[in-house]
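Re: beginner question about structure tokens

> Can someone show what the tokenized structure looks like for a real chain? I only ever see the sequence side.

Sure, here's an example I had lying around. Input first:
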Amino acid sequence: MGLYLLGLKDVVLTDIAPVMPALKHNLKRNKPVLGKMLKTSQLHWNNSDQIKALKPPFDVVIAADLVYIEESVAPLLAAMEAMVSDSGVVLLGYQVRSPEAHALFWEQCVKTRAHNHINKVTAC
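And the corresponding structure tokens:
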């Protein structure tokens, strides 16, 4: 939402099905500030139809608080690869909740095309 307010116009917010009601509720509450409802879409990283429905590639992919389950690392990286353009960037920010998932993510990341596009955002 904040990036839309900073001037990014084509914004799509995604999450898994159980979280979509809360996401839509937050957007509705912020509509007076945003001036409109932003686009939302359900996204499971291993669902290629949902990824294609987003109409990638994107110049900017922002991923927040996603690296905390080891089993999700491979689908997350594949989704990032599918969504970011060749000249795009992935901004990734998260708190390390699982040292194992964190280590696996970066170990696997260097083996993918996504590695060239990911910029880690760390807390100050």
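Each token stands for a local structural state, so reading them left to right follows the chain. Residues 34 and 89 are 24 Å apart (CA to CA).
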